[in-house]
Specification:
- It contains four helices and 13 strands.
- With 260 residues, the protein is of the alpha+beta class.
- The strands form two sheets. Strands 1, 3, 4, 5, 6, 7, 8, 9 and 10 form a nine-stranded mixed sheet that branches.
- 38% of the residues are buried.
Length: 260
């Protein structure tokens, strides 16, 4: 199950049965035209919970990530850190990924689940950006972070910024402390939970006359969607060996109309 850290009470449990409830209070601006998409690429392909060894091996054979070209009107680039570590107790060999639930008072993307990350500062390379943001948001010590690779770059529709996702390994279950100004809770999510048959769904939305895929992961107490879910799907297809080149187009990239 997802293990939250921070000063919050986990949600998503029915008081009458104590059965875990998948999905959370995140607000999804779903258009009326939305329709169901395809099944999870890894259906029938997952036989056991992925380990860190599985992640390392898969990333050594991963395809070169698609780079997002810079545009003259782009703002600053952003970087996020998809940091993985082992579990505790019986799940010590299972790969977990660090996510955050953003603070409810934030102006943008309040309450949404995301990777630690943010905007690049002047003079920084994007790996440094990812490490700095993770240190600021969840007090992650940069010296314990081991880089493993990158995922496909993508550009968001809402903020018109492009994001570079870095995958990294942590040597042990990290002692993370949230910054309450930005983070409501830190989530340690097993990859096995994201691969659960009831976790993933795809929807087809229409933007600017073009239909695009959006991805969702319902974990206990939260719904992960948007750019974060797209990056998770990219990672999980690599880890499970179900990556398909034909499905590589980032779902949050939209063409701009021609000038004139």
């Amino acid at each position: 199950m997802t293990v939250p850290t921070g000063d919050t009470v986990p949600t998503g449990v029915r008081a009458s049965t104590d059965a875990p409830v998948r999905g959370g209070p995140q607000v999804v601006p779903r258009p009326e035209s939305a329709r169901p998409g395809g099944p999870a690429p890894w259906v029938g392909r997952v036989t056991r919970p992925p380990t860190l060894d599985d992640v390392r091996a898969a990333l050594t054979m991963a395809p070169t990530p698609v780079a997002m070209p810079r545009r003259a009107d782009d703002g600053r680039a952003s970087a996020v850190l998809a940091a993985l570590h082992g579990g505790r107790g019986p799940a010590v060999d299972e790969a977990h990924i660090v996510l955050t639930r953003r603070a409810a008072h934030l102006r943008h993307h309040a309450g949404e689940v995301s990777f630690p990350g943010g905007r690049q500062e002047a003079g920084e390379d994007l790996w440094t950006t990812a490490l700095r943001e993770a240190a600021e948001e969840v007090a992650l010590d940069p010296s314990i972070v081991v880089p493993l690779g990158e995922l496909d770059h993508l550009r968001t529709v809402t903020s018109e910024s492009f994001i570079v996702p870095f995958v990294a390994e942590l040597p042990a279950w990290p002692d993370l402390r949230r910054d309450p100004a930005e983070v409501e809770a830190v989530l340690h999510v097993p990859l096995a939970d994201l691969l659960h048959p009831e976790a993933y769904r795809e929807e087809r939305w229409t933007f600017g006359g073009q239909e695009r895929s959006l991805f969702f992961f319902d974990i206990v107490g939260d719904t992960i969607w948007g750019a974060t879910a797209a990056m998770l799907r990219n990672l999980l297809t690599i880890v499970t060996g179900t990556f398909d080149e034909s499905h590589r187009q980032p779902p949050w990239t939209l063409p701009r109309p021609e000038a004139g």
